[in-house]
Amino acid sequence: MNQRILAIITGVLLTISTGWSASVLKMDIDDLTQRSDIAIVGKVQSISHANESGRYPETLFRVQILETFYGEGVSNEVIICLPGGPAGNGLTTYVPGMPKFKVDEKVALFLVLDEDRGVAVPTGLEQGVFRVKVHPETEEEYVVNQTVDIKMNSIGSSEGDGKANGPSLTEFGKNVKQKAEKLKQKK
Asked: What's the number of domains the chain is made of?
């Protein structure tokens, strides 16, 4: 009898937990380009936190814009605002799936602008964040993303031989600019 009750409780808890789970629409480069207001290459300058009354805690990343692939209305920097961070009284709010950044990190970003607040959010969260890495032998910059399949010519292999497994930053930028131009022509 006790095993049966335990099985019922386990089933109910599994049902409830799957109902509470969240997901993000899986996107490719075309989707990211179409759904974003801007796409840039930038360098993270600083990380700060906001915990305004009546709002959830937020983490703010100030990013210096080094290159704009497409989009307008942004000067030389953008503030990325993500939920989570210090909540006061020694507590921290953690939101799974939010991208994390480090100061001085170089990134290529697809962003949706919130002009009312003067901030931006990565399109598709982590999907819209491409890390810029430097190839150890050629010193060429290339981009990687954990969640988006980058269908472009690669400057190396993905066999774990120490070479880059993503497109060069230059190739990536050209590809995104071309996709944005095609989208403009369709409108």
From this structure: 1
